[in-house]
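User: Okay, second chain of the day. Same drill as before: sequence in, structure tokens out.
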Amino acid sequence: MERLAGRAGSGVMRKLYSLVMRGAQPLLRSKLRRRGAAEPGYLVAVDERFGRYDQPATPGALWIHAVSLGETRAAGILLAALRERDPALRVLLTHGTATGREEGSRLLREGDQQAWLPWDTPHAVARFLAHFRPAAGVLMETEVWPNLADACEREGVPLLLANARLSEQSLRKTLRLQRLSRAAYGSLGAVWAQTQADAQRLGRAGAQVSGVYGNLKFDAEPDAALLQQGRDWRARSAAPVIMFASSREGEEAELLRILAAQRELSGAGFARRATDGEAAAARWLLVPRHPQRFDEVAQLAQQAGFRVARRSAWGAGGPPDADLWIGDSLGEMPLYYGLADVALLGGSFLPLGGQNLIEAAACGCPVVMGPHTFNFAEAAERAQAEGGAVRVATMEEGVRAAQALVADPARRGEVVANATRFAQAHRGAAAKTADAILALLRRQGRRLTS
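Assistant: Same drill. Structure tokens below.
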């Protein structure tokens, strides 16, 4: 009786949720128009957001949903492992952001398809499943939607959660709506968590965790050509290079304020040696997390009085003389990490959860991170514990710590070695996850190839 009452309560909550989601559709269209003004990718195939698809579909593909850029890169790692085991695999990739869709287009092969995942209303989700008829769905990391989960369960489409993570902050939000979210998590056919802590939180949310396999991003191989190009450019520079990697709104302004104050104090250059207080000219490289903010960040730097050179204007000769370089390109993070002696971790100096530090470690670039890394909590804690990253409390401390590292080559060398060992020691999630997905689908008698 209690279980039936729980299901009834969940059904009522989902109906209310569906009414809200349907009512919000005009707001979604308005938001897409605004985002599309800065990022035209948001204006592509808008009707797909509402479950209307013009492209023909071939049923039976493995559907992988990767909402944004980071999840899509993780999906690429998993997809490579799946294709190694099943070269004839056909996939349907869905996304939620323009950067995710652009990155995902690079993963497609003949016979694959790509689309937007629809807004989570019952009719849009039903049209999506009826059109594509996937053999199974793999959600990357966090994307569990109530109507999508319910429709997949009713249509007999196994829905799996790979590279799964759930922060304490997200868990608190989930538990506030547990009459809605618990059924969604409980309907998942399998959940493979990144860490034991994630597994425990996912269990509290209602999921049945099938295994703890680690983070797929440890299995990423940095683009060797880009990494070497960055190192070659760094070798030509007499000055050290400090990078602000995947910076977020509000963080760049604080960094520029600190650098401007240092420049005023030093009178020549704007980075100072932490050991003796003498001026030590350093190049700063800012790489904003979101491409729609490239122009804004460049303008902020110019308004602060710095000479700016943007990556898009560097040419084959590499970065020109300037106070600040702006990394305004996509898909070149290995180049930037190769160019940098040390990196500040974006998203960690404001309560935004931090960005992925694993790629920096794999490229041999030491990381200085702020206090807010809840989106990558265990990776950040392990990197710090293993000596591959430095934790600070404020942006100002972060700048000083980065400057201290570039002023002390021996200390920096130790952190580089530790970061490289950290990146190598935690590989293997891709193989485990790919094997688990294919084994589960074989047990259910599902074929993923035509």
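Confidence is low (pLDDT under 50) at residues 1-6, 268-280.

User: Thanks, on to the next one.
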